[in-house]
Amino acid sequence: MDQHQHTRVRFAPSPTGHMHLGSARTALYDYIIARQNKGQFIIRIEDTDRKRYVEGAEQELLDGLTWLGLDWDEGPDKGGAFGPYRQSERKEIYLQYARQMVENGKAFYCFCTPQDLEKKRQAQLADKKNPRYDGTCRSINLAEADRRIALGEKHVIRFKSPLEGTTTVNDLLRGEITVNNDTIDDHILVKSDGWALYHLAAMVDDHEMKVTHVIRGSEWLPTFPLHALINRAMGWSEPVWIHLSVFLKPSGKGKMSKREAADLMKDGYSIFVKDLLDLGYLPEAVINWIALMGWSLDGKTEFFTLSDLINKFDLSGLNPSPAAINFTKLDYFNGLHIRELAPEELAKRIKPFFIKAGFQVDDDTLHKISPIIQKRIITLDDAVEMAGFFFKDEIIVSPEDLMVKDWDSKQVAEVLTDSSVVLESLEDFTSTNLESRMREYVESKELTPGQVFGLLRVAITGQKVSPPLFESMEIIGKEKVLERLGNAKMLIGSAQN
User: Fold this and answer.
1) Which of 12, 228, 344, 402 could lock 44 by a disulfide, CB 3.0 to 4.6 Å apart?
2) Could you tell me if 78 and 315 are in contact, meaning their C-beta atoms sit under 8 angstroms apart?
3) Averaged pLDDT, 258-265
4) Does residue 210 share a domain with residue 193?
5) What's this model's pTM, rounded to 2 decimal places?
C-alpha cells in the first residue's frame, strides 16, 4: 500500500470562543495535506478546560469549516474508528496512560499543596531563579503514593522530566531545536480533579488516532520538547511537527488583541471567520488569503482556488517568519474571486444580503443585476448599497442632488422633460437602444453626456454612482423609469416655486 495512504492530520480546536483566522489557516493546511495524500482529515475537540468552555463554540467551529469548504473525514459529528472525538469523553483513556507512565517511572504522583508550591515559587523568585517544581514528590515510591491516595489525599500527576543532558526536537520549518533538560519543568499531566492537561491529552490522542503530522501554532514551541519527551517516554513514534508562523496585527507590531479586534469591526473587518461571512467575504477569497499568510508557491503567484492549493501546496514553501494580517489584500482577493463566479452564482450569494437589508427581491431581477455589478463590488454586501434601488418602489432624492453644475433648475427640468419624451417614444427599451437615442439627444442639444447622464442617474437610481446607467434602465423597465423622471421633474418644479 502507498505510504501516502496513511497520512492522518488533525485539527484540534478548543471551543472557547469564536473561530479565528489562525485556526482557519491551521485547518486549511491540515485539509490540503490530507487531500494531497489521500489521507484523513480529523476534527478533534479539545474541551477539557471546562472553565473556558463556551456553549455553541463547537458548532460555530464546524459551521466555519463547512463554510470554508473544508470537509472532514472523522469528527465528533461523523464518528470514526478512533473516537470519541471530544477530549471530555476520553477522560478514562488519559488516566490509564498516566497510570502506566507512573508505573514505568516516567511520571509521579505529587501531593504538594498549592500553598506549598506558591511559597517555594516566591522563594525561588527572591533568589532570582526561574520558578519550577523542586522535585519534592519525585522519589515517593508507588506503594506509598497509592496508600496516600487511598486515604483521600489530594494529588496531581507530574511528568518526570530528565534532570540532566539535552533534548533535541525537530520542527519541519525550523529544523533541530536543542534545549537543556534542566530547563524543562516536571509539568502537571493530570490535575487534582482527574482531568488531563493538553500536554498529556493531545499526545495520547495523536498516538491513538495515528496522527502523522501535527500542524499547530508557534505558541506551542516552548513546550514542544516536553511533548516530544512524553512521546519518547511511552515509546511512541513522533509525528512530523510543524509550528506555523504567528499572525501579527495589520500594523505588523505585536499580536492581535480583543480590543483591536473590536476596533477592526468598526472598519468592516474581522479576524473571526463567522464575521467574515456576515461582512460579505467569499470563503474562496478567505482561503486564498490565509493560505498565503506564511506560505508561498514561487513568490509571485497569488490567485489560488482550493483545488489549486491541493495541486500546488508544498510544506517546503512554509515560512516561519511572522505574517501581518493585511485586510487590503483580503479585499483584493475578494474582488478577484467575485469576478470568477458565474453570474447566477453571484446572484445566489448576494440574495441573503438584500433580504437582510429588508428588500423584497426576486431571482429574475437578481440574475439581471449580477453581471452589471460583478466588476464593481468588493464584498457581497456592497451589492446592497450599489443596487438596492432596483427593488425600491420610489427613489428619494433632494432638489440639490438633481442640480447639474452650471445649470439652473429650469435647464434641469427641461432636460428631464426632453428625456422623458425620448424614452416614451421607444418601443425597444433595451440598453443599446436607450444609449444610442440618448446620445443623439445630447448631441442635438449640444450638451455633454456627463451632464445629462449624471442627471438621469440620480433621478432614476437615487445615486451619483451606480451600475451602468442604460443596463440599469433596461432592468428597471420603461414604466418605472418614466415615473422616476416624472417625480424628479416635480421635485425641481416645486423647488422653483
Assistant:
1) 12
2) no
3) 74
4) yes
5) 0.92
Q: Are residues 366 and 453 in the same domain?
A: no
Q: In this model, does residue 494 exceed pLDDT 90?
A: no
pLDDT-derived band at 496, boundaries 50, 70, 90: low
* Domain boundary residue, one of 218, 244, 270: 244
> Which residues have CB under 8 Å from 21's CB, separation 6+?
247, 271, 272, 273, 290, 293, 325
Residue 453 included in any domain: yes
Cell of 164: 540532566
Give a yes or no: residue 277 inside a domain: no
- Within 388-427, where are the H helices? 399-402, 409-424
Question: Residue 466 CB: number of other CB atoms within 10 A?
Answer: 20
- Domain interval for residue 470: 399-496
274 is catalytic: no
Q: Pick the catalytic residue: 51, 253, 258, 266?
A: 258
Q: What is the mean pLDDT of residues 206-221?
A: 96
Same domain, yes or no, for 364 and 479? Answer: no
CA distances from 186 to 182, 190, 367 (A): 10, 12, 64
Q: pLDDT band at 2, cuts 50/70/90?
A: very low
Rounded Cα distance between 260 and 252, Å, is: 13
